[in-house]
Amino acid sequence: MTAEPTKSTTPAASADWEQRAAGAWARLDELDEAEFRDLIDELVAELPPDSAIGPFERACAFDSTGHSDKAVPLYRDAIERGLTGIRRRRAKIQLSSSLRNTGLPEEGVRLITPELDAEPDELDDAVRAVLALCLADLGREREGLSLVLGALAPHLPRYQRSMANYARLLVEPDSD
């Protein structure tokens, strides 16, 4: 899962820092992996040593360059340090995806499932998509497909009601 920059409610990063971080993320495809991670490391070095944003941004950089195994402990560290706001939710989504990528989909399901009940935001569909992938890896494809169809239904120009019902019927026991 490719990480994307966002604003945080955590006061440890200034607006200028956030803007420069967004600029670094915009260069992800221009730089080789090591150059990109070095750029993120330089920005992280400007944050207070106990900042939760630092390990989160480093985790995202590893994740976005194909190193989920190195991202996992950094996401965990960021969450333990008290990451807040949208970054906290992103960390849970991305950590769940990375856990799946490293062969731990059960742990990904445990971590991401409570996010289904979180305050709604722009990441709701990402929560469902990552949970669906974790479930598929566990042989629970019907549950995963139900989640994805349920997330897709409201975005369709037509058939929202039908698709929502089909999503529900994928996981409901037969009513015969």
Descriptive overview:
This protein is mainly alpha-helical and 176 residues long. It has two domains: 15-138, Serine Threonine Protein Phosphatase 5, Tetratricopeptide repeat; 140-176, no CATH class. 64% of the residues lie in helices and 0% in strands. The protein contains nine helices and no strands. Helix 7 runs antiparallel to helix 8. The longest helix has 17 residues, at 85-101. The model is unreliable at 4-11 (pLDDT under 50).
Based on Cα principal axes, name the global outline: elongated
Helical amount among residues, as a percent range? 55-70%
Overall SS class: mainly alpha
N to C succession of SSEs: HHHHHHHHH
Query: How many helix segments?
Result: 9
Radius of gyration: 18 Å
Largest sheet: none
Strand content: under 5%
| Average predicted local confidence, pLDDT | 92
What ranges have pLDDT less than 50 throughout 5 or more consecutive residues?
A: 4-11
Write down the CATH class of the largest domain: Mainly Alpha
Number of strands: 0
